[in-house]
Amino acid sequence: MTGARRVACVAALLAGLLGGGALRAAPPDGLTIGIAQFPTTFHPSFDAAMAKSYILAMTRRPFTAFDPDWTLVCFLCVSLPTLDNGGAVRETTPDGRPGIAVTYRIHPDATWGDGVPVTAEDVRFTWEVGRHPKGGVDNMELYRTILAIDVLDSKTVTFHFDRVTFDYNAINDFRLLPAHLERAVFEADPAAYRKATTFDTDTTHPGLYFGPYRIAEVVPGQHVVLVPNPTWYGDPPAFTRLVVRVIANTAALEANLLSGAIDMIAGELGLSLDQALAFEARHGDRFRFVYRPGLVYEHVDLNLDNPILADRRVRRALLLALDRAAISQRLFDGRQPVAATSVSPLDHVRLESLPPAPHDPEAAAELLDAAGWRTGPDGLRRDAGGAPLRLEIMTTAGNRTRELVQQVLQAQWKAAGIDVTIRNQPARVLFGETLTHRRFPGMVMYAWISSPENVPRSTLHSDSIPSQANNWAGQNYTGYADPEMDDLVERIEVELDVTRRTGMWHRLQEIYARDLPVLPLYFRAEAHVLPSWLSGVTPTGHMGPTTLWVETWRAVEAP
């Protein structure tokens, strides 16, 4: 019996034993959450991944973030500074350019879990790490745009930015670090900091957290236990213990939910839409299912240093050889729209006149012929020297839907004469090492989760290509570099006029569809599988996880 069939049989057996009623007669004091990946690090500024964001959102809060209505709001700050309310003021930078000063006041009661207040010193230290050439943070450009930080008092700081951007007050990626714990570690060796940080060497230290919960136990690859943080300044959370269990195999996630080993499956990192729909058809009377379309972009990164993939004609042929509409229809009942670019149909800057590339095997064949890849007697395309057109594709091992889609892509490319081999890795390795260090030889399938009108500097600008020289900072894993794209990214950021900015967005999408640094697949819908007795979980559809509001989660008597 195969592993997948064995899990399915176990799930069916458990379903029969447990019957069709609610799993718990009374609401519990604890909650166990199932997710499909384990964080590669617990440091908030390294290795962007939803697994880490989901857990850390329960233990700390950003200065600003988008709420479920896609409105920018304050979390750590007292009120959102704007040009209208005087919290933001235009100014001239020392070199004569237009700049802006934005003042944030930290919540007066914000305190790290070890009793040390969250202060302006933490803000300045975070900035120093972010802008250090060896810091290696993900969104390094944010820190570079901050020319200076003035400390007005222990809880009030003014950021001086070197430009006036349309989202000048959104510092969502300014992820605060505890100076009293991390400064000595960082200053000892900035280049080695990402491996020596307290977030990974002493993850349960209370002083790392200032949210409603703190991490009390970590078993790498298995689970994270969270308990209430006594220094939390907001509404008290309802649960005395949260356990985030990592179950990489999505079929096993279902089995664990049916057995009661977990109470819920997080929509941010759990079942795919097709799995959730099938699961609901079988067990819809026992759980609550919430679906939220959003800004989750499933795609295939291409290593543009690979000579085969460096040819734009080959990249275009790879896309035209795929029947993405059939994949969406047959696997997801047409509910996950095929992507034209990285900009979602739900985003107001989407270029409506740019449809997704069609399935066109004949056009794909012509492009491959023109690129020098001719079909041999065995049906495989080869170059003039007889070398086969062979590529490797990777994704997260154990994700049943991704692995199925991967096999479909492989078969469709084989029909076009392209030999694609599959080599998958656990998410912790794939995101922690392979992508970050650009160690994939060909293609990697995964998802980006973004915020509304998110400028793709970290993924498309040439300055964001990770390398040893910048300590593997940035998320432009493909190695894409185009002067016009760089210029557009920079101009979009500073254009306050919505009409002009939208026009730039449209041109960015045209270049993206032309150059194809990645192969767009589809935009995912999140599927949250919740117990009937849990209230307060509100999916957002963007990169802000539901756990940003974990203190509002409550157990209620099941109907």
Describe it for me?
This protein has 559 residues and is an alpha+beta fold. The chain has three domains: 3-59 and 200-292 and 526-555, Periplasmic binding protein-like II (D-Maltodextrin-Binding Protein, domain 2, 3-Layer(aba) Sandwich); 64-182, Dipeptide-binding Protein, Domain 1 (Dipeptide-binding Protein, domain 1, Alpha-Beta Complex), CATH 3.90.76; 294-524, Roll (Dipeptide-binding Protein, domain 3). Helix content is 30%, strand content 20%. It has 17 helices and 20 strands. Helix 3 (120-131) packs parallel to helix 5 (179-188), helix 10 (312-320) packs antiparallel against helix 12 (361-370) and helix 16 (483-494) runs antiparallel to helix 17. The chain is globular, with a radius of gyration of 24 Å.
Strand content: 15-25%
- Poorly predicted parts: 1-23
CATH class categorisation of the largest domain: Alpha Beta
User: How far from one another are the termini?
Assistant: 39 Å
Indicate the percent of residues in helices.
25-40%
Oligomer: single chain
Topology:
Blueprint: H1 3-18, E1 30-35, H2 50-56, E2 64-66, E3 72-74, E4 88-92, E5 98-105, H3 120-131, H4 140-144, E6 146-153, E7 156-161, H5 179-188, H6 193-196, H7 198-201, E8 213-219, E9 223-228, E10 241-246, H8 250-259, E11 264-265, H9 273-283, E12 287-302, H10 312-320, H11 324-332, H12 361-370, E13 374-375, E14 381-382, E15 390-394, H13 400-415, E16 419-422, H14 427-434, E17 443-449, H15 457-460, H16 483-494, H17 498-515, E18 518-531, E19 534-535, E20 554-555
Parallel strand pairs: 1-10, 1-11, 15-16, 15-17
Antiparallel strand pairs: 2-3, 4-5, 5-7, 6-7, 8-9, 9-10, 12-17, 12-18, 13-14, 19-20
Helix pairs in contact: 1-8, 3-5, 10-12, 16-17
